[in-house]
Amino acid sequence: MNEESTVIDAVDKVSPAVVSIVVKTVNFDYFSGPTTSDQGIGTGFIVDKNGLIITNSHVVDDPVGEYTVVTKDGKTYEVNKIYLDESSDLAIIEITARDLPVVEFADSDNTKVGQMAIAIGNALGRFQNTVTVGVVSGISRQLQATGGFGGVKTYENVIQTDAALNPGNSGGPLVNSSGQVIGINVATSIGADNISFAIPVNTLIPILDGFLKEGRIIRPYLGVTYTMVTPEISELRDMPVGAFISRVSPESPASKAGLLRGDIITKINETTMDGENSLSQVIAKAKVGDKLKLYVDREGKEEIFTAEVEAAPENLK
Q1: What share of the chain in percent tops pLDDT 70?
Q2: Regarding beta strands 52-55 and 90-95, do their DSSP bridges make them parallel or antiparallel, or are they unpaired?
Q3: Is the pLDDT reported for residue 292 higher than 50?
Q4: Does the pLDDT value for residue 18 go beyond 90?
Q5: CB 73: neighbour CB atoms within 10 A?
Q6: Active site residue 57
Q7: Does 170 qualify as catalytic in the annotation?
Q8: Reduced to 3 DSSP states, what percent helix, strand and coil does the chain have, rounded to the nearest 5?
Q9: Which molecular function GO terms apply here (predicted)?
Q10: Catalytic position from the list 15, 57, 108, 170
Q11: Is 93:79 a contact under the CB 8 Å cutoff?
């Protein structure tokens, strides 16, 4: 099968489940007074046939925004409720609908550099899907990125692609050649041509599973602020590679386990904290109630602590 028909088949499979996110804006005209208009600001995709849609939290985080969703067949739905998870830059949108087409997820841990990457989105805020094609050019990257409309955020463990993205693509799916979602398009790096990024879909899956069970976004929580000590920093500073704890939140699982500022977590269960695995990635994959075995370097001596994962406080950003 040639590349062109592969792309067409993948797009045909997934695009019915891709939606435009629209916000109502009010403009004041000196002669005619206030006027309202609809502006496409991003993209989303349907994950549940009864009206659950995923996008980026930065696309729908205006508390007074009046949002609607436009499906590929041109139908417009009012947004009933938005659930934001700002730490992962993901949002779940509820609309009233039944029997909608849904996307299929890939296992993004199996994403390989060089594989095809197809981005589908509402380019530059128009109301129709556009398609760009490229390859996965990097995985497990960390970046500082601008959202399409300004604001800088640090993302961990993202997929890098050369499929061209622009602001309206935010929240749309990055899919493989089989039409399965591997990531959620998020940003283009500052000052870079043709370097775009997507949040791996495996970051979304536990958030969505928890939401379907509990009706709200539940985030696993350890309760530390940290900086990753990379192999390069490790050599320069003569410190072990791992997560250097700069703050332990009071009454948090980390505090109850006995962690202190200045500890370096080098391993959690069987996962080593190295360039490929950051602390937040490991915690994100844990479930509330899981017991984690933390291997800690405390002033040069290894100590082992056990922490029980809790749900993040609702007021935690």
Answers
A1: 85
A2: antiparallel
A3: yes
A4: yes
A5: 7
A6: no
A7: yes
A8: 20, 45, 35
A9: serine-type endopeptidase activity
A10: 170
A11: yes
Known catalytic membership, residue 58 = yes
User: Residue 49: how many CA atoms within 13 Å on its side-chain side?
Assistant: 4
* End-to-end Cα, the chain, rounded Å: 46
Least Cα distance to 105 among 19, 197, 182, 207 occurs for: 182
**Comparing 50 with 41, which gets the higher pLDDT?**
50
Q: For 180-199, what is the mean pLDDT?
A: 80
Catalytic choice (20, 85, 89, 278)? 89
Domains of the chain, earliest start first? 16-27+35-95 (2.40.10.10), 108-214 (2.40.10.10), 220-311 (2.30.42.10)
SS3 state of residue 182: strand
Q: Encoding tokens for residue 64? A: 């007074």
> pLDDT (tens digit, 9 = 90+) per residue, 175-184?
999 999 999 9
Question: With the CA atoms of 311, 199, 188 and 241 taken in that order, what torsion angle do they form, in degrees rounded to the nearest 10?
Answer: 70
Tokens standing for residue 281: 């990635």
Could you please report the per-residue DSSP string of 106-140? --GGG--TTSEEEEEE-GGG-SS-EEEEEEEEEEE
Neighbouring residues of 163: CB distance < 8 A, sequence distance ≥ 6: 117, 118, 119, 132, 133, 134, 135, 174, 196
**DSSP letter assigned to residue 105:** B
Interatomic CA distance for residues 167 and 5, integer angstroms: 27
CA 135 to chain CA centroid, Å, is 19
Q: Which two tokens stand for residue 14?
A: 């997934």
- Of 58, 88, 108, 263, the active-site residue reads 58
